[in-house]
């Protein structure tokens, strides 16, 4: 398939690249952990995309924290605009998009035409972001990818009272020292994360349907718990981590 | 007055100082006249800026040598001062001095000096900047004259009560507190009477400290000059209603200095007359503060002093003009309440009504009105970590602005004087996302 536009999302944890056809369908994708040399990595990934049919002439939009470092991009847009665009293209519905990324989380209100009406961000505190799970997984010596299933399967949970990632870590240590089963702790951690995100959603007022994007959307427990807290199901975007890059590519399609 | 002090004052301030500052102004004006634009995306610079610089420099130069020549009062930004002016006091505004420190990037070191002495980082950064200045004796303006009298009015916040008690303890001088009841709704007659009584008492203390009595005619004169300057200031801000706006809130943040610290002076009135004339001329010629104005925003709360220039440039680059601010507006909106023929009653009324002494509903209503009057597309709400009274309620205000008022609003987390509470990357990111929503 011929690529008509490219989108690159340089996030704090992963760099995502999407190539779309003229009709706006994803035809090519790449995902790599973000390297310290952002410029070089972005250009190497883009070179790969541009080697695809049509890729050479495809306009490129960059998004994510590192968006300004992508020298060969035609334009830079924030993740707010791009995630909303990507998810709206998939769902075709207005609603509230919760995007939980590696180092921040955002709640975006999408209008009937897919436009961003309003947004709020948590960019001040690691609790309520992917980093919270990463750090606590490290402390529990668990692979992050398995945490969600473990939380869902757990039959009980302990409340994690600390709202700070660093203090949550020490809380875990004392819980484990008291013999609390790891699964209960893991379930409690998910609940704590969801708690943070829920207040962000509530600050915009309840506007279902709810969608979830960003890397943390891979975690089924987060979606399930968030749905419980909001009293309405939370739909996980397909390929949630790619929605920013996808939205960027869709923006690149526009003149 | 010691004759040596008087001699030094007249030599340094009245003769040499004045001449040097005038020369500097001429040089600045010459430079400004040759500048096509004030920045890559900004319109031509305001010619009156040279005059402003002269006024402010003269104010601080006077302060440097005034000790022993005139009595000095340190006052809060919202304190009644007309009687002090009429009694010949030199007025020092620690908040304005704090802003000068902020603009010159001295905020952090002054705050640190205060924190080293044990003051909490949670304290307003103006208070910390002031304590840092007092304790270190260092300031970018040379030297501050120690006070003979302190006048503190809680119509802006409660922090000032404790702040001025610290100053009173440090300088061992009389402190006058003027307590203004908070206005949840309208001011009641007993509230006006209560404030009026305190102003009467404040006059007595000021007279005693100055060793002379207040001449009613002189007070009326000062009040008349205050009134005139405030009226001019309001008109200046209102030129921002034009498209393109000939002035932005960023300019106002700088040009507001005289309305705060030099009210009641002839030279302030003359200066604002000139500024207004310049803006009216700009409007006639269709000259904007930005080279290309596409969107218009309203600003709420204090400025971020140490980021004024970059923020103004980055908004201008996207064609966004800050056409008004609730902060600068606060210095003009009360003009109707002043009656120079009833100076003391007017003072009681005016000093009861600052925006910070009224409920959050009033602020929302002010913003709604300004949005309309200035045809603004949205609001930037600076959530100022230091200024709790100004920032409280902004989350609800944001929701209501975006909801029933249809004006998108952004919360920008910062602090007006402490750069450690500001994250450039995050602020930029939020701002860009907001401007994308606005279509700027
Ligand atoms: S808290 Fe606000 S009103 Fe009070 S001194 Fe500080 S900046 Fe001014």
Topology:
The complex is a heterodimer of chains A (about 260) and B (about 450).
Chain A lengths: L4 E6 L3 E7 L5 E8 L4 H13 L9 E4 L11 E2 L2 H13 L3 E6 L4 E6 L5 E7 L7 H11 L3 H10 L11 H13 L4 H22 L6 E4 L6 H11 L3 E3 L6 H11 L2
Parallel strand pairs in A: 1-4, 4-5, 6-9, 9-10
Antiparallel strand pairs in A: 1-2, 2-3, 6-7, 7-8
Helix pairs in contact in A: 2-8, 3-5, 3-6, 4-6, 6-7
Chain B lengths: L2 H32 L14 H17 L6 E4 L6 H5 L3 E3 L1 H10 L3 H10 L8 H12 L12 E5 L5 H13 L3 E4 L10 H22 L5 H23 L10 H7 L1 H5 L4 H20 L9 E6 L7 H10 L2 E6 H4 L13 H10 L7 H14 L4 E7 L3 H4 L2 H9 L6 E6 L9 H15 L2
Parallel strand pairs in B: 1-2, 1-3, 3-4, 5-6, 5-7, 7-8
Helix pairs in contact in B: 1-2, 4-6, 5-6, 8-15, 9-12
Explain how this protein is built.
By secondary structure, chain A is α/β, with parallel strands linked by helices. Chain A has a domain of 87 residues: 2-Layer Sandwich (Nucleotidyltransferase, domain 5), CATH 3.30.420. In chain A, 41% of the residues lie in helices and 21% in strands. In chain A, the strands form 2 sheets. Chain A has a 5-stranded mixed beta sheet. Chain B is α/β, with parallel strands linked by helices. Chain B has one domain. Helices cover 55% and strands 9% of the residues of chain B. Chain B contains 19 helices and 8 strands. In chain B, the strands form 2 sheets. In chain B, strands 2-1-3-4 form a 4-stranded parallel beta sheet, sandwiched between helices. A 4-stranded parallel beta sheet of chain B has the order 6-5-7-8, sandwiched between helices. In chain B, strand 1, helix 3 and strand 2 form a beta-alpha-beta unit. The longest helix of chain B is centred in the N-terminal third of the chain and has 32 residues. The model of chain B has no long low-confidence stretch (mean pLDDT 96). The chains are: A alpha/beta (255), B alpha/beta (440). Chains A and B meet through helix 2 and strand 8 of A and helix 18 and helix 19 of B. The site of iron/sulfur cluster has 13 residues of chain B, from helix 7 and helix 17.
């Amino acid at each position: 398939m011929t690529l008509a536009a490219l989108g690159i999302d340089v996030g704090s944890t992963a760099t995502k690249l999407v190539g779309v056809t003229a009709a706006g369908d994803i035809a090519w994708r790449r995902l790599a952990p973000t390297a310290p040399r952002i410029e070089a990595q972005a250009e190497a990934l883009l070179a790969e995309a541009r080697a695809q049919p049509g890729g050479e002439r495809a306009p490129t939009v960059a998004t994510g924290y590192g968006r300004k470092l992508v020298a060969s991009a035609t334009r830079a847009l924030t993740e707010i605009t791009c995630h909303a665009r990507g998810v709206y293209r998939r769902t075709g519905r207005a609603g509230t998009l919760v995007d939980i990324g590696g180092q921040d989380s955002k709640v975006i209100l999408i209008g009937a035409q897919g436009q961003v009406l309003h947004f709020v961000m948590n960019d001040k505190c690691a609790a309520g972001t992917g980093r919270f799970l990463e750090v606590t997984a490290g402390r529990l010596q668990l692979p992050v990818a398995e945490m969600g299933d473990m939380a869902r399967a757990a039959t009980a949970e302990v409340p994690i009272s600390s709202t700070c990632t660093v203090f949550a870590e020490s809380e875990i240590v004392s819980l484990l020292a008291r013999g609390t089963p790891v699964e209960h702790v893991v379930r409690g951690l998910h609940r704590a994360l969801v708690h943070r995100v829920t207040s962000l959603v509530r600050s915009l007022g309840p506007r279902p349907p709810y969608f979830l994007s960003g890397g943390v959307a891979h975690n089924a427990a987060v979606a399930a718990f968030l749905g419980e807290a909001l009293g309405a199901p939370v739909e996980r975007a397909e390929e949630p981590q790619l929605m920013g890059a996808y939205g960027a590519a869709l923006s690149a399609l526009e003149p | 007055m010691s004759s040596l002090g008087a001699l030094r004052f007249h030599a340094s301030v009245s003769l040499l100082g004045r001449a040097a500052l005038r020369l500097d102004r001429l040089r600045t004006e010459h430079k400004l006249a040759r500048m096509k634009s004030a920045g890559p995306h900004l319109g031509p610079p305001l010619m009156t800026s040279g005059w402003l610089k002269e006024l402010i420099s003269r104010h601080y130069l006077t302060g440097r040598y005034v000790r022993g020549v005139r009595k000095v009062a340190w006052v809060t930004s919202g304190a009644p001062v007309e009687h002090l002016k009429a009694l010949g006091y030199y007025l020092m505004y620690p908040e304005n001095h704090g802003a000068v420190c902020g603009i010159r990037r001295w905020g952090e070191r002054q705050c640190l000096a205060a924190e080293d002495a044990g003051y909490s980082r949670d304290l307003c950064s103006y208070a910390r900047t002031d304590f840092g200045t007092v304790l270190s004796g260092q300031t970018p303006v040379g030297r501050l004259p120690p006070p003979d009298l302190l006048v503190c009015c809680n119509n802006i916040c409660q922090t000032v009560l404790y702040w001025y008690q610290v100053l009173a303890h440090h300088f061992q001088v009389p402190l006058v507190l003027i307590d203004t009841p908070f206005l949840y709704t309208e001011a009641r007659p007993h509230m006006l009477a209560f404030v009026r009584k305190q102003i009467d008492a404040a006059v007595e203390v000021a007279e005693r400290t100055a060793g002379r009595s207040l001449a009613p005619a002189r007070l009326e004169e000062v009040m008349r000059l205050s009134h005139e300057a405030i009226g001019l200031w309001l008109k200046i801000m209102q030129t921002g209603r034009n498209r393109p706006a000939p002035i932005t809130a960023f300019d106002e943040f700088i040009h507001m200095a005289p309305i705060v610290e030099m009210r009641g002076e002839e030279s302030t009135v003359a200066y604002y007359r000139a500024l207004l004339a310049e803006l009216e001329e700009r409007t006639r010629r269709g000259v904007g503060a930005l080279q290309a104005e596409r969107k218009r925003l309203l600003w709420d709360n204090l400025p971020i002093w140490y980021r004024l220039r970059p923020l103004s440039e980055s908004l201008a680059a996207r064609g966004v003009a800050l056409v008004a601010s609730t902060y600068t507006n606060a210095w003009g909106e009360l003009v109707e309440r002043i009656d120079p023929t009833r100076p003391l009653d007017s003072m009681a009324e005016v000093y009861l009504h600052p925006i910070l002494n009224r409920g959050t509903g009033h602020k929302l209503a002010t913003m709604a009105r300004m949005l309309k009057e200035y045809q603004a597309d949205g609001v930037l709400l600076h959530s100022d970590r230091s200024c709790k009274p100004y920032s409280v309620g902004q989350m609800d205000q944001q929701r209501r602005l975006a909801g029933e008022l249809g004006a998108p609003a952004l919360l920008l987390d910062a602090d007006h004087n402490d750069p450690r509470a500001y994250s450039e990357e995050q602020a930029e990111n939020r701002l860009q996302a907001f401007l994308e929503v606005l279509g700027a």
